[in-house]
């Protein structure tokens, strides 16, 4: 799949959707989206792609149409801008302090213990480098944001406490764990 700056512009999205839709079904699946999003200098894991799809469909159907495809591309522009803003040392990776800043800009405050766990979990080196790359940054932020939203649905008094049945808890959490 060719990649250039127009890939992320609305003008380039229509033709790119058609290129990605290899079976001409009018929908693209997770692997087709992964191919469309990945380029010579940036790749996206299937997990990140699936979380992006889930964000705009709220289902695990793993297929999106042109409308969601455009939304994914617009969201990637926002994620890239945020990543570049907090990656102050231009290392191409986000460390713990940079991740804290990114999450705070999304209105998500997590404890230092949770922050360290997130960096370790989303670090491609298994926690050795203590930093996360762009696609894992998106995955991390989408996971924290999604889980926080699910929690807030149950924390109606904003007390920091919520009650879930086991089934409701599993239904809230699993889409983010097995994307």
UniProtKB/TrEMBL annotation:
Coiled coil: none annotated. It comes from the Eukaryota. One of its GO terms (molecular function) is calcium ion binding. Keywords: Calcium. Residues 16-43, 74-109 form the EF-hand domain. CDD domains: EFh_PEF_Group_I. This is EF-hand domain-containing protein. It comes from Citrus unshiu.
């Amino acid at each position: 799949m060719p990649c250039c700056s127009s890939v992320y512009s609305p003008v380039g999205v229509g033709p790119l959707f058609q290129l990605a839709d290899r079976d001409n079904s009018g929908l693209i699946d997770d692997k087709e989206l992964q191919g469309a999003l990945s380029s010579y200098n940036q790749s996206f894991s299937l997990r990140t792609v699936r979380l992006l799809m889930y964000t705009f469909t709220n289902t695990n159907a793993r297929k999106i149409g042109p409308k969601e495809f455009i939304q994914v591309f617009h969201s990637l522009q926002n994620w890239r801008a945020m990543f570049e803003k907090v990656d102050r040392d231009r290392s191409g990776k986000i460390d713990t302090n940079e991740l804290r800043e990114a999450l705070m800009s999304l209105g998500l405050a997590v404890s230092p213990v949770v922050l360290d766990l997130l960096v370790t979990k989303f670090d491609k080196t298994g926690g050795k480098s203590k930093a996360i790359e762009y696609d894992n940054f998106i995955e991390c932020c989408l996971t924290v944001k999604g889980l926080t939203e699910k929690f807030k649905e149950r924390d109606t008094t904003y007390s920091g406490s919520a009650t879930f049945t086991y089934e409701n808890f599993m239904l809230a959490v699993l889409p983010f764990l097995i994307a």
